[in-house]
Amino acid sequence: MTSLPYVHGYSPRESARLSDQAQTLADLLHRDVAYPPGAQVLEAGCGTGAQTVILARNSPGAQFLSVDRAADSLALAREAVGRAGLTNVRFELADLFHLPFPDGAFDAVFVCFVIEHLAEPGAALAELQRVLRPGGEITVIEGDHGSAYFHPDSALARQAIQCLVDLQAEAHGDALIGRRLYPLLRSAGLAEVRVTPCAVYADASRPGMVEGFTRNTFTAMVAGIETAVLRSGRMDAASWRQAIADLERTAAPDGVFNYTFFKARAVKAG
Question: For the chain: N or C, fewer Cβ within 10 A?
């Protein structure tokens, strides 16, 4: 059971993109995520801490243990939490498939934009269920690149998005995993599974979403795989440049962009 290479890479540019994404989507994805004082919460796959800061700030009385398999990412996460002045987070290096915690150690588990990068997401969810106490809740948030549509439409832009889907599949991940959350959590043995679609809609009447999501999150994410796409021969350089220009065009005054994230919640049976 393995965690896979992160298809987007670990550059400073990618860290900035993740931070922009987290802040832009904070209200949409975190508005009803809160934990009571004293709750012991595991954040699985915290990465550079983009979600950690929001979680810890929204639930100041809860205690968070944020884990990741990458020491460099954990160092960045510690810095982010320190800059935010938060004191309710600890960090630990850990493998999601073999967590070094006893059964039922946590009151809640939070996982965001992680299982799409795992070759065996069901096995990871089963391990996360193991460390969750009976009656405890797990929250899993993922995107689905197949849900993206936009105006003006562009066959090249859609081809570029498909390149990202294909590259992630080649690495045994799943960029379309949002639509699979319900069956995945059910198969892992979790109960009371509820999945909520969270749509991002951006047009000129929502300039913050245009800048934060259309430009700095989604288009930046696709643009970041340029080297891999050109090296693989999936698109030529001229077509790629036009594809990215067409995605950027959707951020123009008459442009529209829509994308759906999926938030799943489930409970460990008692």
Answer: C
- For residue range 72-86, what is the model confidence (pLDDT) as tens digits? 999 999 999 999 999
Q: Burial, 236: exposed, middle or buried (Cβ in 10 Å; 0-12, 13-18, 19+)? A: exposed
Computed on alpha carbons and rounded to an integer, the radius of gyration of the chain in Å comes to: 18
Task: Report the alpha-carbon distance of residue 149 to residue 214 in Å, rounded.
Answer: 11
- Ordered by where they begin, the domains of the chain are 12-267 (3.40.50.150)
Asked if the model's pLDDT at residue 239 lies above 70, the reply is: yes
Task: To the nearest 10°, report the CA torsion of 182, 143, 53, 46.
Answer: 70
What's the CA gap between 149 and 260, in Å, rounded?
A: 10
The C-alpha atoms of residue 33 and residue 13 are separated, in whole angstroms, by: 28
By C-alpha distance, which of 127, 76, 78, 84 is closest to 106? Answer: 127
Q: Are 252 and 152 within 8 A, CB to CB? A: no
Q: How far apart are CA 49 and CA 95, in angstroms?
A: 17
